[in-house]
Amino acid sequence: MRILSNKKCKLIRALTAVFALALSIGAVSVNLETTASASTDKNEYVMDATQVSFVDKGGEAVKDENDFFGVGHKNNYVIQTALTHDAPSVKVQASGYGDVIYGGDNDIARVEVKLLFNRWPDSVPDDASYMKLSVYNSADIYFENPIASAEEFGTGEYVNSPFSGFGNFIRIFQLEPEDVCNNRGKLRDFVLRAECDGDYWNSALIIDYVKVVFEADGLYKAGECLTNENPENITDTQVVWTKGKGFGDTYIDLANYGGFFSYVDNPMLVELTKDNFPTAQCVTEADGTETLLLKNAVFALNVGDLSADDYQQFTMDILLNDKRAKGGHTLYLYGSKPGKFLDENGAPVGYAAKVLVESYEQGFHNKFLLEKEDISKLADKNGNISYIYVLYQGNTLDTAEETVGLRNGSQIWINKVQFLKEGDVETPTVATEYDKYDVSDIFPVGESVSLNNKAGASVDDIISIATLQNKRVGELSLDLTMENGENIAFLFNAKTYTAINEYKNGGVLFYLSNDKIEISARVDGEVTKSVSATSSSAFDSKKTVKLSCIPYYLNDVESGLYCAVTVDGQLLLSDYFRSDCLNLGDTFHLSYQAKDKDFSVNIASAKTEGVISAKDLMKVEIKAETLRYSLDKTDIPLVLAWYNTGCDEVSKVNCSGDVAMVNQDVRRVQFTENGEVKVSFSVTNAFGTFTSNELSVKCKDVLADTENLEQAPKKGCAASIIVLSSVGVVGMACGTFFLVKKNKASKKEEVEESEENNNEEN
Question: Which of 88, 542, 593, 693 has its CA 20 to 30 A from that of 68?
């Protein structure tokens, strides 16, 4: 059996230490009296931690501060408890849904439970080879018939995904109502039970939500839409045909496929293999990987007989699993009787929608989404929809000369096909509580500042001139003037902390110019969504701009970001960016797009009063403190503190006088003889140069030789430590500092007296 290193065990314990904070001995008291109602025109009802509790187990509702679930409920509350070798089961009360019985007017299609299970919060049991988590009906008191189970994992086989760490895995259990409801058809409670072959183990369990999902007209499990190849006998010799097959209870796993699938009851699977495409060439790479050189493959789905006019929205999830990590893939959606898929040059024509599916090592998914005005593109000439088609065009790296293809054995999964009527369309709810900032609150612009681009600098790159970590801006206000040029950019929720081309890695980019306004999201270099509008008025005169980047919710579950641009009180551009097209972090950038010409942009505070000056926001300071120690000369550590904009240049520390020098590498004043020096430094960034206070440092009675060092008093250091508070809105510098004083060892009284005097003087 594989034994983990101490280092990995420490990582596991560190990752899961936060769990222990929420575990308690007493049971949680949660109000379950509220009876929730769910109208028939809604597709689901979500119970969060306020409506879910554990029976006879310690636990409490806590904030999901570590964001383990990627996307959580809007109140950011989860509920957690412990499962152990001696107490491996917990009953989950989920009666907040009330007395609605499945099979009645509000049919329950399924029950979902989203949870995180941590297998080894303390340490890996030496004698354990597996662990798993299962769901049971509460009436199954002998645990004989599990409803659903997470896969078993060995001690070293950890899930490695953006949403879990060592020893953790996240699951959405899909439960049939007849399996989980009681004998009267009511959803009351169910049991979660861990199993492990170790003699001792301890684990943590966190539940994000319990969801009841209803059947709705126009909602299909994709596996129910199976059909033969080319069911409408479409003549297009440039495409090859294939078909899917259904899987009744397949779990498309967060960890292995990287997507937020709401359910996977009977999904459709299309296998992209040499056996299914015998005319496509299959080559073996140097590493032994088989690559299928496939282009223009089509499969059909049968959706019955629908009238396009009856529906307000169409959605279909798509996952393409290609583990070669080379390129992405392009898919097109077509409606009934498309005539042909490709023109004479091989370009797709007549399609209703297009999506790009990135398929890195973990896999990605996307979604076809059509609103009312575009659903007609799925209909035949009579306005009816019977079949829809998906065209796999090929790899995004394909050229006319080369087909890059994809791994032989890749798969396309379709989760659900949904036609929604007006009452069924989920209406986004934008958060009402969020942070609001003036630009002068977070960048040192003061009343105003002009930012200048010089010709020839990395043309077309988005260059960050200021960057703030740990800053999620909800709404940013500023006055903007494009004096001689044409653009400025703001990057919200950026993925990482770098200065140039940050927008390519992730975040939401707001681009403003005299010609257009654009909001875009990118994931690892590819645009996942972009919306734009022609600027109604140029920014050559001052405009007051508000940029919004605020969470929104569908059925109380956070589902993405609402982004908007308002200019002089008029909403010019807004849209919803789904979570699956976002790659977010915790960094905010002020940027511009470099051009091969000089231009400047003026950014000013939108406040009418109380503007923080640039100098006050930067708060550049230099400080020191005393510490007695015996050395051959005096060293005085310095602390440089300032509001860090991420693109700052810090000067050398200036030191006046001939009795000391500054070691810039360690930022220490080193005296060579008695005397006084004055030290200061400055910070330069896009907003100007800011100089610190001038610190006066004195030293007297420097030890002239080292002969008596061994006779020096062997006392511990008497240190006085001051920790600077955070500076400004986002204080980026804090630390400790010491003033080191050395005195002659043979004069104990003089040492103590001199130290007292020195403390008073400094």
Answer: 88
Interatomic CA distance for residues 227 and 4, integer angstroms: 49
Average pLDDT over residues 4-8: 39
Rounded Cα–Cα distance for residues 135 and 150 (Å): 9
H-type helices in 572-700, by residue range? 614-618
Distance CA(535)–CA(545), nearest Å, equals 12
Q: How many CB atoms lie within 10 A of CB 187?
A: 24
Residues 6+ apart with CB under 8 A from 618: 444, 642, 643, 683, 687, 690, 728
Quick one: tokens of 541? 């005169």
Which has more pLDDT, 207 or 748? 207
Those residues whose C-beta lies under 8 Å from the C-beta of residue 261, and which sit 6 or more positions away, are: 172, 252, 317, 319, 365, 415
Q: Given this model, what pLDDT does residue 154 score?
A: 47
Q: Please report which helix (H) or strand (E) contains residue 294, including its range.
A: none
753 vs 92: which has the higher pLDDT: 92
Which pLDDT belongs to residue 16?
40
The answer to whether 601 touches 483, Cβ cutoff 8 Å, is yes
Structure tokens at 271: 């296998």
What distance in Å separates the CA atoms of residue 710 and residue 561, rounded to the nearest whole number?
66
With the CA atoms of 150, 155, 161 and 165 taken in that order, what torsion angle do they form, in degrees rounded to the nearest 10?
110
Top-confidence residue, 473 or 632: 473
With a CB cutoff of 8 Å and minimum separation 6, the contacts of 378 are 308, 314, 333, 334, 335, 336, 352, 370, 385, 388
Instruction: Report the Cα 127 to chain-centroid distance in Å.
Output: 36
Distance of CA 198 to the CA centre of its chain: 35
What whole-number distance in Å separates Cα of residue 615 and Cα of residue 693?
12
Higher pLDDT, 112 or 283: 283
What average pLDDT score do residues 226-234 get? 92
What pLDDT band is residue 748 in, cutting at 50, 70 and 90? very low
pLDDT digits (tens, 9 = 90+) for 677-686: 899 999 999 8
**Whole-number Å distance between alpha carbons of 292 and 409:** 8
Q: What is the Cα–Cα distance from 510 to 519, expressed in whole angstroms?
A: 5
